[in-house]
Amino acid sequence: MKIHPALVTLSVLVAGAVAADAPAAAAPRTHVVVIDKMKFGAVPPNLHKGDKIVWVNRDMFRHTATAADKSFDVDLPPSTKRVTVLRSAGIIKVVCKFHPGMRTVLKVS
Ligand SMILES: [Cu+2]
User: Fold this and answer.
1) Which CATH code, of 3.40.50.1100, 1.10.3720.10, 2.60.300.12, 2.60.40.420, is assigned to 30-108?
2) What is the CB neighbour count within 10 angstroms for residue 51?
3) Which of 20, 28, 76, 90 is the most buried (most CB within 10 A)?
4) Ligand 1 centre and the CA of 8: distance in Å?
C-alpha cells in the first residue's frame, strides 16, 4: 500500500498536537537558600529538575555552594547572590569549599 505524502504530514501534525496537550511537567520554580553566620539556611522541599536556586551570601566571608557530584560550583563573595539551575535529579550534597563544616543537602526529584 502506498501512503500519500500529505497523509504522513497530517499524522505528524496530529501527533504533535497530542503531545502539546499532554500534561506538562511542573513549570520550573526559583528557590532561595540564604547563607548566614557560616551556615546554609533552610533548603526548600520539593525541588525539581529544572528549578533554580538563588544562593544568597549574607556573610562577610566568601563562600561557595559546591555540589559533590560537580553539577554546580558557585562562588559567593561577601554580600552576593548567584543562581544555579538544578540539572539533575537525586540527592545532591553541597559544601562550601572554604569551610568544610558548611554542608547541606538538596533532594531533587
Ligand atoms: Cu564558606
Assistant:
1) 2.60.40.420
2) 20
3) 76
4) 58
User: Can you name the residues that pair with 40 across neighbouring β-strands?
Assistant: 35
Instruction: State in Å: Cα 73 to ligand 1 middle.
Output: 12
Cα–Cα distance measured from residue 41 to residue 52, given in angstroms and rounded to the nearest whole number: 16
Spacing, Cα 59 to ligand 1 middle (Å): 9
**If you measure from the C-alpha of residue 76 to the centroid of ligand 1, how many angstroms do you get, rounded to a whole number?**
9
Q: Which residue has the cell 552576593?
A: 80
Ligand 1 centre and the CA of 101: distance in Å?
8
Q: For the whole model, what pTM was predicted?
A: 0.76
